[in-house]
Amino acid sequence: MAERLVYFNGEFVPESEARISIFDCALMYGDMVFEMTRSFGQQPFRLREHLERLYGSLKYAQIDCGLDIDEMEEATHETIARNLPVIGALDFQIMHDVTRGALPLYNTIVKEGTAPIVSINVFPLVRHTGGMAHLYQEGAHFVVPSQQSVPSRYIDPKAKNRSRIFYKIAELQAAQMEAGAQALLTDEHGFITEGTGNNFFMVRDGQVITPKGHNILRGVSRGACMELAGKLGIPLCEADIEPYDVHQADEAWFTSTTICMVPITRFNFQAVGDGQVGPVYRRLLAAWSEEVGVDIVGQACQYAEMMGEWTP
To answer: Which of 58, 208, 232, 278 to pair with 11, CA 20 to 30 A apart?
Structure first.
Protein backbone atom coordinates (compact mmCIF):
# COMPACT_ATOMS: atom_id res chain seq x y z
CA MET A 1 0.00 0.00 0.00
CA ALA A 2 1.33 3.43 -0.96
CA GLU A 3 2.41 5.63 1.95
CA ARG A 4 2.22 9.38 2.38
CA LEU A 5 5.53 11.22 2.04
CA VAL A 6 7.00 13.87 4.31
CA TYR A 7 9.30 16.68 3.22
CA PHE A 8 12.30 16.34 5.53
CA ASN A 9 15.13 18.84 5.02
CA GLY A 10 14.92 18.73 1.25
CA GLU A 11 14.18 15.03 0.89
CA PHE A 12 10.93 13.08 0.76
CA VAL A 13 10.71 10.17 3.16
CA PRO A 14 7.86 7.79 4.03
CA GLU A 15 5.67 9.17 6.81
CA SER A 16 6.45 6.20 9.07
CA GLU A 17 10.18 6.96 8.79
CA ALA A 18 10.00 10.71 9.47
CA ARG A 19 11.70 10.96 12.87
CA ILE A 20 13.90 13.34 14.81
CA SER A 21 16.44 12.52 17.50
CA ILE A 22 15.57 12.32 21.19
CA PHE A 23 18.38 14.86 21.60
CA ASP A 24 16.69 17.43 19.36
CA CYS A 25 15.84 20.79 20.90
CA ALA A 26 12.19 20.14 20.06
CA LEU A 27 12.15 17.34 22.64
CA MET A 28 14.66 18.81 25.07
CA TYR A 29 13.10 22.28 25.22
CA GLY A 30 9.92 22.30 23.17
CA ASP A 31 12.10 24.56 21.04
CA MET A 32 10.35 24.67 17.69
CA VAL A 33 7.73 26.61 15.76
CA PHE A 34 4.99 25.31 13.53
CA GLU A 35 1.97 26.07 11.38
CA MET A 36 -1.08 24.09 10.37
CA THR A 37 -2.98 24.97 7.21
CA ARG A 38 -5.94 23.13 5.69
CA SER A 39 -7.24 22.63 2.19
CA PHE A 40 -10.65 23.15 0.63
CA GLY A 41 -11.17 21.19 -2.56
CA GLN A 42 -7.52 20.19 -2.09
CA GLN A 43 -6.42 23.82 -2.47
CA PRO A 44 -4.50 25.26 0.51
CA PHE A 45 -6.50 27.95 2.31
CA ARG A 46 -4.51 31.11 3.00
CA LEU A 47 -1.22 29.26 2.80
CA ARG A 48 0.79 32.43 2.33
CA GLU A 49 -0.70 33.93 5.51
CA HIS A 50 0.25 30.83 7.46
CA LEU A 51 3.77 30.94 6.06
CA GLU A 52 4.11 34.63 6.89
CA ARG A 53 3.19 33.82 10.47
CA LEU A 54 5.64 30.89 10.44
CA TYR A 55 8.45 33.19 9.40
CA GLY A 56 7.42 35.69 12.06
CA SER A 57 7.66 32.87 14.60
CA LEU A 58 11.06 31.84 13.24
CA LYS A 59 12.32 35.40 13.64
CA TYR A 60 10.98 35.54 17.19
CA ALA A 61 12.68 32.23 18.06
CA GLN A 62 15.89 33.24 16.20
CA ILE A 63 15.88 30.14 14.01
CA ASP A 64 17.26 30.31 10.48
CA CYS A 65 15.64 27.36 8.72
CA GLY A 66 17.74 27.74 5.55
CA LEU A 67 14.77 28.42 3.26
CA ASP A 68 13.20 31.72 2.36
CA ILE A 69 9.42 31.96 2.34
CA ASP A 70 9.12 31.43 -1.42
CA GLU A 71 11.22 28.27 -1.22
CA MET A 72 9.08 27.04 1.68
CA GLU A 73 5.94 27.67 -0.33
CA GLU A 74 7.37 25.81 -3.32
CA ALA A 75 8.35 22.86 -1.09
CA THR A 76 4.82 22.85 0.33
CA HIS A 77 3.18 22.60 -3.07
CA GLU A 78 5.57 19.83 -4.08
CA THR A 79 4.74 17.92 -0.89
CA ILE A 80 1.03 18.22 -1.67
CA ALA A 81 1.51 17.10 -5.27
CA ARG A 82 3.51 14.02 -4.24
CA ASN A 83 0.78 12.98 -1.78
CA LEU A 84 -2.37 13.55 -3.82
CA PRO A 85 -2.27 10.06 -5.40
CA VAL A 86 -2.40 8.55 -1.89
CA ILE A 87 -4.89 10.99 -0.36
CA GLY A 88 -7.47 10.58 -3.10
CA ALA A 89 -10.30 13.13 -3.02
CA LEU A 90 -9.96 14.01 0.67
CA ASP A 91 -9.12 17.42 2.05
CA PHE A 92 -6.11 17.56 4.34
CA GLN A 93 -4.02 19.43 6.87
CA ILE A 94 -0.62 20.81 5.93
CA MET A 95 1.76 20.83 8.89
CA HIS A 96 5.01 22.79 8.91
CA ASP A 97 7.38 21.97 11.78
CA VAL A 98 10.74 23.69 12.23
CA THR A 99 13.02 22.67 15.08
CA ARG A 100 16.29 24.33 16.01
CA GLY A 101 18.05 20.97 15.67
CA ALA A 102 19.99 18.80 18.08
CA LEU A 103 21.84 20.23 21.04
CA PRO A 104 25.55 20.66 20.20
CA LEU A 105 26.38 18.47 23.20
CA TYR A 106 25.11 15.47 21.23
CA ASN A 107 26.40 16.41 17.78
CA THR A 108 28.42 13.22 17.31
CA ILE A 109 25.45 10.88 17.83
CA VAL A 110 22.72 12.72 15.92
CA LYS A 111 22.76 11.83 12.24
CA GLU A 112 20.99 15.06 11.21
CA GLY A 113 23.61 17.17 12.98
CA THR A 114 22.74 20.35 14.85
CA ALA A 115 21.20 22.36 11.99
CA PRO A 116 17.48 23.22 12.03
CA ILE A 117 15.11 20.57 10.73
CA VAL A 118 12.21 21.49 8.45
CA SER A 119 9.41 19.00 7.91
CA ILE A 120 6.17 19.33 5.97
CA ASN A 121 3.45 16.71 6.11
CA VAL A 122 -0.07 16.36 4.79
CA PHE A 123 -2.71 14.33 6.59
CA PRO A 124 -6.38 13.79 5.64
CA LEU A 125 -8.92 15.70 7.73
CA VAL A 126 -11.23 12.73 8.29
CA ARG A 127 -10.52 12.49 12.02
CA HIS A 128 -10.07 16.22 12.58
CA THR A 129 -13.47 17.29 11.28
CA GLY A 130 -15.35 13.99 11.41
CA GLY A 131 -14.72 13.66 15.11
CA MET A 132 -16.24 17.09 15.75
CA ALA A 133 -19.06 17.03 13.20
CA HIS A 134 -21.77 16.74 15.86
CA LEU A 135 -20.66 20.04 17.42
CA TYR A 136 -21.79 22.06 14.40
CA GLN A 137 -25.38 21.28 15.43
CA GLU A 138 -25.07 20.70 19.19
CA GLY A 139 -22.48 23.31 20.02
CA ALA A 140 -19.53 23.00 22.38
CA HIS A 141 -19.30 23.53 26.14
CA PHE A 142 -16.50 25.89 27.17
CA VAL A 143 -15.34 26.27 30.76
CA VAL A 144 -12.76 28.51 32.41
CA PRO A 145 -10.06 26.38 34.12
CA SER A 146 -7.72 27.59 36.86
CA GLN A 147 -4.79 27.36 34.44
CA GLN A 148 -4.30 30.77 32.81
CA SER A 149 -2.56 31.92 29.66
CA VAL A 150 1.13 32.73 29.82
CA PRO A 151 1.58 36.53 29.52
CA SER A 152 3.18 37.65 26.28
CA ARG A 153 6.06 39.26 28.17
CA TYR A 154 7.22 35.73 29.06
CA ILE A 155 6.38 33.71 25.92
CA ASP A 156 4.60 35.60 23.18
CA PRO A 157 1.61 33.53 21.98
CA LYS A 158 1.66 35.38 18.65
CA ALA A 159 4.66 33.20 17.78
CA LYS A 160 3.19 29.74 17.21
CA ASN A 161 5.45 27.44 19.19
CA ARG A 162 5.36 23.98 20.76
CA SER A 163 6.21 25.19 24.29
CA ARG A 164 2.58 25.01 25.39
CA ILE A 165 2.18 22.63 28.30
CA PHE A 166 -0.16 25.21 29.85
CA TYR A 167 -2.62 24.39 27.05
CA LYS A 168 -2.54 20.72 28.01
CA ILE A 169 -3.00 21.42 31.69
CA ALA A 170 -5.99 23.63 30.86
CA GLU A 171 -7.49 20.82 28.74
CA LEU A 172 -7.03 18.31 31.56
CA GLN A 173 -8.67 20.65 34.04
CA ALA A 174 -11.60 21.25 31.69
CA ALA A 175 -12.10 17.51 31.22
CA GLN A 176 -12.13 17.06 34.99
CA MET A 177 -14.91 19.63 35.23
CA GLU A 178 -17.01 17.79 32.63
CA ALA A 179 -16.21 15.12 30.05
CA GLY A 180 -15.99 16.76 26.65
CA ALA A 181 -15.75 20.32 27.99
CA GLN A 182 -13.19 22.57 26.34
CA ALA A 183 -10.98 25.14 28.04
CA LEU A 184 -11.30 28.89 27.59
CA LEU A 185 -8.30 30.58 29.15
CA THR A 186 -8.01 33.95 30.86
CA ASP A 187 -5.05 36.26 31.41
CA GLU A 188 -3.63 37.43 34.73
CA HIS A 189 -6.27 40.18 34.87
CA GLY A 190 -9.15 37.77 34.35
CA PHE A 191 -9.87 38.73 30.74
CA ILE A 192 -10.60 35.94 28.26
CA THR A 193 -7.74 35.22 25.88
CA GLU A 194 -8.24 32.07 23.79
CA GLY A 195 -8.95 28.37 23.81
CA THR A 196 -6.27 25.70 23.58
CA GLY A 197 -5.67 26.13 19.87
CA ASN A 198 -8.66 28.29 18.94
CA ASN A 199 -9.95 31.85 19.09
CA PHE A 200 -13.12 33.03 20.83
CA PHE A 201 -16.02 35.11 19.50
CA MET A 202 -19.33 36.17 21.03
CA VAL A 203 -22.31 38.24 19.93
CA ARG A 204 -24.19 40.76 22.02
CA ASP A 205 -26.95 43.01 20.66
CA GLY A 206 -25.97 42.21 17.07
CA GLN A 207 -22.28 43.05 17.50
CA VAL A 208 -19.52 40.44 17.22
CA ILE A 209 -16.88 40.79 19.95
CA THR A 210 -13.53 38.99 20.12
CA PRO A 211 -10.59 39.38 22.54
CA LYS A 212 -7.88 41.91 21.77
CA GLY A 213 -4.83 40.54 19.98
CA HIS A 214 -2.08 41.16 22.53
CA ASN A 215 -2.16 37.94 24.61
CA ILE A 216 -3.42 35.49 21.99
CA LEU A 217 -2.35 33.66 18.89
CA ARG A 218 -3.79 35.84 16.13
CA GLY A 219 -5.34 32.98 14.22
CA VAL A 220 -5.58 32.97 10.44
CA SER A 221 -9.10 31.56 10.80
CA ARG A 222 -9.83 34.33 13.31
CA GLY A 223 -8.80 36.82 10.65
CA ALA A 224 -10.92 35.08 8.01
CA CYS A 225 -13.96 35.25 10.29
CA MET A 226 -13.39 38.94 10.98
CA GLU A 227 -13.07 39.66 7.26
CA LEU A 228 -16.31 37.80 6.51
CA ALA A 229 -18.10 39.85 9.16
CA GLY A 230 -16.86 43.01 7.46
CA LYS A 231 -18.04 41.82 4.04
CA LEU A 232 -21.49 41.01 5.45
CA GLY A 233 -21.76 44.33 7.24
CA ILE A 234 -21.85 42.73 10.69
CA PRO A 235 -20.43 45.07 13.37
CA LEU A 236 -17.31 43.68 15.04
CA CYS A 237 -14.89 44.92 17.67
CA GLU A 238 -11.93 43.65 19.66
CA ALA A 239 -12.38 44.18 23.39
CA ASP A 240 -11.50 42.98 26.87
CA ILE A 241 -14.03 40.25 27.67
CA GLU A 242 -14.65 38.92 31.15
CA PRO A 243 -16.32 35.56 31.84
CA TYR A 244 -19.28 37.55 33.19
CA ASP A 245 -19.76 39.06 29.73
CA VAL A 246 -20.10 35.64 28.11
CA HIS A 247 -23.08 34.89 30.35
CA GLN A 248 -24.75 37.98 28.85
CA ALA A 249 -23.95 36.96 25.25
CA ASP A 250 -26.60 36.06 22.69
CA GLU A 251 -24.34 33.51 20.98
CA ALA A 252 -20.71 32.46 20.79
CA TRP A 253 -18.31 30.33 18.74
CA PHE A 254 -14.66 29.50 18.28
CA THR A 255 -12.50 29.44 15.17
CA SER A 256 -9.68 27.03 14.35
CA THR A 257 -7.91 25.93 11.20
CA THR A 258 -9.34 22.47 10.63
CA ILE A 259 -12.96 23.06 11.68
CA CYS A 260 -13.28 26.77 10.75
CA MET A 261 -16.13 27.79 13.10
CA VAL A 262 -17.87 25.76 15.81
CA PRO A 263 -20.70 27.18 17.95
CA ILE A 264 -20.46 27.41 21.74
CA THR A 265 -23.89 26.75 23.25
CA ARG A 266 -22.84 26.34 26.89
CA PHE A 267 -20.38 28.30 29.01
CA ASN A 268 -19.44 27.35 32.56
CA PHE A 269 -22.43 24.99 32.77
CA GLN A 270 -24.96 27.62 31.65
CA ALA A 271 -26.62 28.11 28.27
CA VAL A 272 -25.20 30.79 25.99
CA GLY A 273 -28.19 32.85 24.90
CA ASP A 274 -31.05 30.43 24.33
CA GLY A 275 -28.66 27.50 24.18
CA GLN A 276 -29.11 27.08 20.42
CA VAL A 277 -26.81 27.72 17.46
CA GLY A 278 -27.20 31.41 16.70
CA PRO A 279 -28.16 33.25 13.49
CA VAL A 280 -25.00 35.35 13.21
CA TYR A 281 -22.89 32.20 13.46
CA ARG A 282 -25.00 30.47 10.79
CA ARG A 283 -24.71 33.46 8.48
CA LEU A 284 -20.93 33.64 8.80
CA LEU A 285 -20.42 29.89 8.37
CA ALA A 286 -22.60 29.88 5.25
CA ALA A 287 -20.52 32.73 3.82
CA TRP A 288 -17.32 30.82 4.62
CA SER A 289 -18.61 27.70 2.85
CA GLU A 290 -19.56 29.80 -0.17
CA GLU A 291 -16.16 31.51 -0.27
CA VAL A 292 -14.20 28.22 -0.30
CA GLY A 293 -16.65 26.25 -2.44
CA VAL A 294 -17.09 23.50 0.17
CA ASP A 295 -20.06 22.76 2.41
CA ILE A 296 -18.05 22.84 5.64
CA VAL A 297 -20.66 21.12 7.80
CA GLY A 298 -21.62 18.67 5.07
CA GLN A 299 -18.01 17.64 4.60
CA ALA A 300 -17.54 17.12 8.34
CA CYS A 301 -20.65 14.91 8.44
CA GLN A 302 -19.38 12.92 5.46
CA TYR A 303 -16.04 12.39 7.19
CA ALA A 304 -17.83 11.35 10.39
CA GLU A 305 -19.56 8.56 8.47
CA MET A 306 -16.18 7.44 7.09
CA MET A 307 -14.38 7.25 10.42
CA GLY A 308 -15.35 3.70 11.28
CA GLU A 309 -13.90 2.28 8.07
CA TRP A 310 -11.16 4.79 7.27
CA THR A 311 -7.53 3.85 7.92
CA PRO A 312 -5.18 6.83 8.42
So the answer is: 58
